[in-house]
Amino acid sequence: MSKRKAYFFPLRPERRKGGKLRLSSKLRSIQLIITVTFTTVAVLVAVIVSFMLYKKFANTAEENANLNMQQIIEQVNYNLDIYAKGMRNIYDKAEEQIAHTSSIDSSLLKERLATLLETREDLVAVALFTPQGKLVLDVPGTEMRNNTQLENQNWFTAPSRTPEISFSPPHIQNLFKNQYTWVVSMSKLIQYRENGILKTGILLIDFNFRTIDELSKQVKLGKRGYAYILDPLGNIVYHPQQQLIYAGLKYENVEPVLEYAYRSYLDESTGEKRFITVRTVPQTGWKIVGVAYYDEIVTTKRDLNQFLAGFLSVVILCVIIVSVFMSALIASPIRKLERTVKLVGEGDLNTPIDVSGAYEVEQLSRRFNLMLQRIRQLMDQIIYEQETKRKGELEVLQSQINPHFLYNTLNSVIRLAERGKTDEVVTMIQSLSKFFRISLSKGKNIITIQEELDHIRHYLVIQSFRFKNKFRYEINAQEEVLQVQTIKLILQPIVENALYHGIEMMPDEGLITINAGLSEGNVVITIRDNGLGMSEETLNGILTGGSKNGSGSGVGVRNVNERIGLYFGREYGLSFESEMEEGTTVTIIFPAVIDLKDNTEEEGGKSQ
To answer: Which residues contact 187 (CB under 8 A, 6 or more apart)?
Structure first.
């Protein structure tokens, strides 16, 4: 407050000059600047946005309605096309059965067609006629009616005009007695054999129209909109108001529809504005026509625009009120906060921020102090973890090429070679090669459980030659755990300790069992031996550093636990159970991850 008084005090003697300096000071105050600027910008933006939204919404509403209708019609078109493909496949199957039969009156053919008829509930009948209209074959074998006038029916005449399969408009099936089903007929000229003689006939398959009717009835385009279907000649296949069409009480302008296979346009032929969308079913050539009424779109647009205008007006008013009050709260402490933050930005992380004023500013000050404290803690933690991690990585690198282990292994190879045991020499050399190949892993620190188990298997194979008849081993793993990733060389130190400290001094044969699996989203690996076991004091000192290994892989059990904790979190790692003269069980737990990030490679790349 003393600075504020000192700032305004020199202005008081200037009252005689009409208060111009005082007015100038008020106009330059941060509170007024924030209020005027924020209010002006907010109101201007709100007005511009409101105007743009209002102008844009008309087109957007129409486009969205049209797009929605197109998507619905596309879906119906897709469904009908899939269904038509199924109809065509049935027809091709029936034609194939007839073509591969030596005689059309074969009982086996009728059985196959009957079976085909039973596979689809919508299949009504399969029949074969001569070009003169004589019935040659029918399934399911219903007696044919008289006076059917085949020559005048669309399905009978269509094959003479095109070699492709023809789809008739929906009609009542009137060929056979006791059948009055509303069907769509498929027909085509085909070749068949009768008593070994090749003849030409018209194959007819009737499908129940109910499925197409149900697919079309599901279309809803607003409250009044609908969809109807035309065949390539302009005949109505389906219309939700088909009775009104037949009665002449409703009219559809189909001429523009027949001109295009894919089109959307605005139609006013009926006296009302309607959006029309046309799609063509590839399999049948039928056209699906969607009709949506323009007045429904306009009504929705008008209601939403009124709501938008009212909403934006309220928002502008609230912005003005809030800007006035917030500017008063922010102006005073903001400069002090800026000065203090500037010191921190220059590198002084020990500078505390103590700013009073608006609640948000106080919270910002408090949170900033907590952030600085946390940054200092994280920096210390990162330094510690990086040092530990680098140390562990160095130890792993050292273990990858262990001269002592290599020397002993090569000595064993030499002794086996001198004895002429070439098969065992080959096995040992192969295991040694694979052991070091997995150990090196092209510099990667992340491998799969499969590779880690292969690594320890090769290690045990090598050691089994060195400790002849001294121990056996078993390795079991669930199939789903093999592709989970892990940091490498987590098993060798534990198994090595089991050999040298648990089994080597035993008079009896030792057994090492390794099991790997998944449990509640975690990888669980157990290494169990029947060796000498450990005392409670030794057990308690393993992970704390109180117990030191006299020999081992160079990595050490404690290092394995530290590496797991660094990569997966401190809640994961090793646990031990041991009993003297009974053996030791080590359990490794870490999360199951398929794509584990190799931090070692990234850091190595950065350092280069």
So the answer is: 155, 156, 158, 159, 165, 166, 168, 202, 203, 204, 205
